[in-house]
């Protein structure tokens, strides 16, 4: 019973859906049916007022097409099948639902029938013989059918299924000749190899079941004949071949048995007698100009209209050249409708030709001469019939599904949905091409229209659904006369019409309607129970029992037991005391149902507004508030926000806030609850503020509430770290032998802030190019690498102390570390520290700056000295060579005696040298001592003096000769002294590496002096090198602005 009730409700919803002007919603009955199958029938959807909206929503999630034909299906069936042979199930092929469906065969009788519940398609008692059917093509023969599928559970619109059954040919016909005796004539003395055509056999079957081959039986050919089968235009043609010499005087006739076989399995055969008459000689046979002729003729052409002419020629003379034309293998229709002139070969219209009956003629024409022994030729003729617009469209109107027609009248309920089909209209035209293109319309102003029923319809045959376009109303119109007009596209166009009378059946299609869709009721809270609050009224456009109404409230858990209604009068009363603070609005549905079958129901919404009374105190969201703000906020800055509510409404809920007590430090904004400061906070002065807020509502009398507020001042990073140790002008002495990892200094700093703002980190940001030192997070400076000679001297580390604030603040400390073995000259280090304070921080001060430069100068100096030594060696070697040669040449040399061949006489040489000396005005050398000369005669001596104090190399080069050559030695001593070589350094010497401290007192260990005096021999000129380096000038830079120095 519950399922039947739900079914009735579903139908009721289906009726209501149709009022929404869309037929698609009615498909939602399937959803309710699925609910029944899942066992959810207990779900009382029909009692919910929101079902139409829900159904709309589900419609878009599950769209289904309506009122259309499915794509056509195709089956195949051999002919001559027994009754009740299953052909197929069109519904299953298309995936249609079979449950609760009615299948009805619209087209296909009497050969087919359909199972009304299952949809299976069967054969009937009427046999299907392919040879008796009118087939569009000899190879394909179809039997068309239509089936309408109607939902019997929800009465939704039917679905039209179109289909075709391909009738497959079976080999049920035996091929046969036109006569049991076939006579042909062959002239005597016909050449061997001559081919003579034999009349063909016919077979009503088609395709492979048709004629397949011919053969001559037995040995009756007498060695004079053989048979071959040719194929022309898809037809098997038997041909007799003359293989021997024919002599009429010996034998004038021959009888052969010829058999025809079709291609069926098993094959069918038949035989005939082929009688061959041997005639006298007729030399030439007629010959057609072409082997085939093609022509066209318009249907309905007048009698006598010429179509085409076949022509043949014969080279003989007299009667042998006279040609007579006759039909051969022509169908009865061709012989009946066409005329072939025997003499001229003209083919003309003999009777009116209707293309709709015969669209093409195919036959052969024989040309035979009139000789006693005639000869003939054959040509194929194809004549196509052109269409003429001589057929008006045909309109067929029939019922569909549950809508039946009787005597041209269809009955339909007024509550059918839009686009519901009333009939199937089939429009066809027997013409072809544009003459068969039909336009079909509904004439007049009626709420019906035609929509294509299938995409498979051809131009010659179209199917339409005659559907409703608007809801039908029996109370307005009870009957419609629908005229359907079809017009083809011929010239001139032809038209036809057909009519259908549609009678509208009255149903209970008017639901009760309330005077107001939404009924508003106002009621003060704390009311008296069981008072009537409103009376609702509804009307019904129907009459009688369909207009008698019963009122009820829709079940709603939110209003259960609070309200009830009188079912006869519609009076609604409240059953309990209402509290606006618990619920301000009550909304429920009231229904009015008529007593029709099925019953229709109308609904309205009742909204009860509960009016407020001031029965609630203001209430803060928290029992107390605590806010934290940063110091240094300017006055009038927000420091917090409180939220206060009042369960009442309007003026009773308008709350005003006050600071209590008001000491001028804070104020509060009404409306937002924002607490503003009137002072600027300084955490060092006061870190906590406490006061109360008072909330007062606007009711009568007013109600109030209090809450405590605490303001905590948070620290802000407004103090920069300051360095307490070391001072920028101090330094630490470090021995080069200090172990790695040892602490060499300590940086200490303080910050007046607290928390993360006072967390200090230390880092070296400058002055550590050799990465000798490292500072720990606690400020401890340690040695990280081994001290080398180049690292001696003053090191300035730039240490940055950064706090943890955002943004961070920092201070910079200068850590001076003096690396040396001793600490003798303190004033020098202090001077270096003072110079560091005036040096920019981006300039590194680390170790001895002259160390690398001195290494470069030493390398250059050594290179120069090596060059000088090489030059001196070359000179000495040259002198020795000259000396030895003179000694060999003048082994008896006497002093004062001039040799004519002596190239090195003292007199000549002295004059030249004296002249040069006089010109250059050199200082006169002193006379050499004999002891020194004696010591020098032992060899050449080189004295290189490189005094470390001044780094000024000095070379003293005396030249002495042996006593064995006094004049030569005197010559070089007096006139050709070898000058000393003076070096000019190109780069500062190592003695300059302490120029930075030359102005310091002599007690400074780094102040060094060089010996600038050179000693030389009294016998020779003294050449010495003296270096006078420029004094160091101090560069006074910008004063170091040490941040954070206090």
Automatic annotation (TrEMBL):
It comes from the Eukaryota. It comes from Scyliorhinus torazame (Cloudy catshark). SUPFAM superfamilies: Cadherin-like. Residues 891-935, 1003-1032 are annotated as: Disordered. Its main location: membrane. InterPro entries: Cadherin-like_dom (IPR002126), Cadherin-like_sf (IPR015919), Cadherin_CS (IPR020894), Cadherin_N (IPR013164), Protocadherin (IPR013585), Protocadherin/Cadherin-CA (IPR050174). Residues 1003-1022 have a biased composition (Polar residues). This is Cadherin domain-containing protein. Residues 73-177, 178-288, 289-395, 404-514, 515-620, 621-723, 741-851 form the Cadherin domain.
């Amino acid at each position: 019973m519950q399922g039947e009730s739900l079914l009735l409700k579903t139908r009721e919803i289906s009726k209501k859906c149709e009022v929404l002007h869309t037929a698609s919603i009615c498909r939602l009955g399937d959803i309710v049916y699925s609910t029944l199958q899942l066992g959810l029938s207990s779900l009382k959807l029909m009692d919910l007022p929101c079902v139409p909206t829900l159904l709309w929503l589900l419609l878009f999630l599950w769209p289904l097409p309506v009122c259309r034909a499915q794509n056509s299906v195709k089956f195949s069936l051999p002919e001559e099948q027994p009754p009740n042979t299953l052909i197929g199930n069109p519904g299953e092929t298309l995936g249609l639902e079979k449950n609760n469906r009615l299948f009805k065969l619209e087209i296909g009788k009497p050969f087919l029938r359909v199972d009304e519940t299952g949809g299976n398609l069967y054969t009937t008692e009427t046999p299907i013989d392919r040879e008796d059917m009118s087939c569009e093509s000899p190879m394909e023969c179809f039997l068309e059918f239509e089936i309408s599928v109607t939902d019997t559970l929800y009465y939704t619109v039917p679905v039209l299924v179109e289909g075709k059954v391909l009738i497959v040919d079976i080999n049920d016909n035996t091929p046969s000749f036109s006569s049991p005796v076939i006579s042909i004539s062959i002239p005597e003395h016909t050449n061997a190899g001559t081919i003579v055509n034999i009349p063909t056999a016919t077979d009503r079957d088609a395709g492979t079941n048709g004629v397949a081959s011919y053969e001559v039986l037995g040995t009756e050919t007498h060695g004079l004949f053989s048979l071959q089968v040719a194929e022309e235009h898809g037809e098997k043609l038997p041909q007799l071949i003359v293989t021997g010499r024919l002599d009429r005087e010996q034998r004038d006739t021959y009888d052969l048995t010829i058999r025809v076989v079709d291609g069926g399995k098993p094959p069918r055969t038949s035989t005939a007698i082929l009688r061959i008459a041997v005639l006298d000689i007729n030399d030439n046979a007629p010959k057609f100009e072409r082997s085939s002729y093609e022509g066209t003729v318009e249907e309905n052409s007048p009698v006598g209209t010429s179509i085409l002419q076949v022509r043949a020629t014969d080279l003989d003379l007299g009667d042998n050249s006279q040609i007579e034309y006759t039909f051969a293998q022509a169908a009865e229709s061709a012989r009946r409708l066409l005329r072939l002139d025997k003499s001229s070969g003209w083919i003309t219209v003999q009777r009116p030709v209707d293309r709709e009956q015969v669209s093409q003629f195919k036959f052969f024409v024989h040309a035979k001469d009139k000789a006693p022994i005639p000869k003939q030729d054959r040509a194929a003729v194809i004549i196509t019939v052109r269409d003429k617009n001589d057929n008006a469209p045909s309109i067929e109107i029939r019922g569909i599904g549950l809508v039946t027609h009787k005597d041209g009248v269809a009955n339909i309920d007024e509550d059918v949905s839009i686009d519901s089909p009333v009939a199937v209209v089939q429009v066809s035209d027997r013409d072809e091409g544009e003459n068969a293109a039909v336009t079909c319309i509904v004439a007049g102003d009626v709420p019906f229209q035609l929509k294509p029923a299938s995409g498979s319809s051809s131009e010659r045959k179209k199917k339409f659904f005659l559907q409703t376009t608007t809801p039908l109303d029996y109370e307005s119109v009870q009957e419609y006369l629908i005229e359907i007009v079809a017009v083809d596209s011929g010239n001139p166009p032809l038209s036809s019409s057909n009519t259908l009378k549609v009678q509208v059946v009255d149903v209970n299609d008017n639901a009760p309607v309330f005077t107001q869709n939404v009924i508003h009721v106002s009621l003060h809270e704390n009311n008296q129970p069981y008072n009537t609050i409103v009376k609702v009224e509804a009307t019904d456009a129907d009459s009688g029992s369909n207009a008698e109404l019963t009122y009820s409230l829709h079940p709603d858990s939110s209003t259960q037991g609070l309200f009830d209604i009188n079912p006869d009068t519609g009076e609604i009363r409240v059953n309990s005391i209402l509290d606006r603070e618990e619920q301000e609005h009550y909304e429920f549905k009231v229904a009015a149902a008529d007593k029709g079958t099925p019953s229709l129901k109308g609904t309205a919404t009742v909204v009860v507004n509960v009016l407020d009374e001031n029965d609630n105190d203001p209430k803060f969201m928290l029992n107390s508030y605590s806010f934290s703000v940063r110091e240094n906020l300017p006055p009038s800055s927000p420091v917090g926000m409180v939220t206060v509510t009042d369960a009442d409404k309007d003026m009773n809920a308008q709350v005003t806030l006050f600071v209590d007590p008001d000491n001028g430090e804070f104020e509060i904004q009404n409306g937002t609850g924002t607490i503003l400061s009137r002072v600027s906070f300084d955490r060092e002065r006061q870190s906590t503020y406490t006061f109360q807020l008072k909330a007062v509502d606007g009711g009568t009398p007013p109600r109030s509430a209090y809450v405590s507020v605490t303001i905590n001042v948070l620290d802000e990073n407004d103090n920069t770290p300051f360095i307490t140790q070391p001072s920028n002008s101090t330094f630490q002495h470090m021995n080069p032998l200090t172990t790695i990892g040892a602490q060499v200094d300590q940086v200490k700093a303080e910050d007046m802030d607290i928390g993360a703002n006072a967390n200090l980190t230390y880092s070296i940001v400058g002055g550590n190019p050799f990465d000798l030192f490292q500072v720990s997070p606690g400020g401890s400076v340690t040695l990280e690498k081994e001290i080398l000679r180049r690292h001696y001297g003053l090191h300035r580390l730039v240490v940055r102390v950064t706090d943890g604030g955002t943004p961070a603040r920092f201070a910079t400390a200068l850590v001076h570390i003096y690396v040396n073995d001793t600490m003798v000259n303190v004033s020098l280090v202090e001077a270096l520290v003072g110079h560091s304070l005036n040096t920019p921080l981006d300039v590194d001060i680390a170790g001895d700056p002259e160390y690398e430069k001195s290494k470069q100068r030493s390398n250059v100096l050594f290179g120069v000295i090596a060059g000088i030594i090489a030059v001196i060696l070359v000179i000495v070697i040259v002198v020795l060579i000259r000396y030895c040669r003179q000694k060999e040449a003048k082994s008896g040399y006497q002093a004062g005696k001039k040799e004519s061949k002596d190239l090195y006489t003292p007199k000549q040489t002295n004059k030249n040298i004296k002249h040069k000396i006089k010109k250059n005005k050199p200082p006169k050398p002193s006379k050499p001592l004999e002891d020194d000369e004696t010591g020098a005669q032992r060899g050449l001596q080189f004295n290189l003096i490189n005094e470390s104090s001044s780094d000024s190399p000095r070379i003293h080069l005396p030249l002495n000769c042996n006593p064995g050559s006094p004049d030569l030695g005197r010559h070089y001593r007096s006139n050709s002294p070898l000058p000393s070589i003076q070096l000019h350094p190109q780069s500062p010497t190592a003695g300059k590496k302490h120029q930075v401290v030359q102005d310091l007192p002599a007690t400074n260990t780094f102040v060094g002096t060089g010996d600038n005096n050179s000693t030389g021999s009294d016998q020779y000129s003294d050449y010495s090198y003296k270096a006078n380096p420029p004094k160091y000038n101090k560069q006074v830079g910008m004063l170091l602005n040490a941040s954070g120095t206090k």
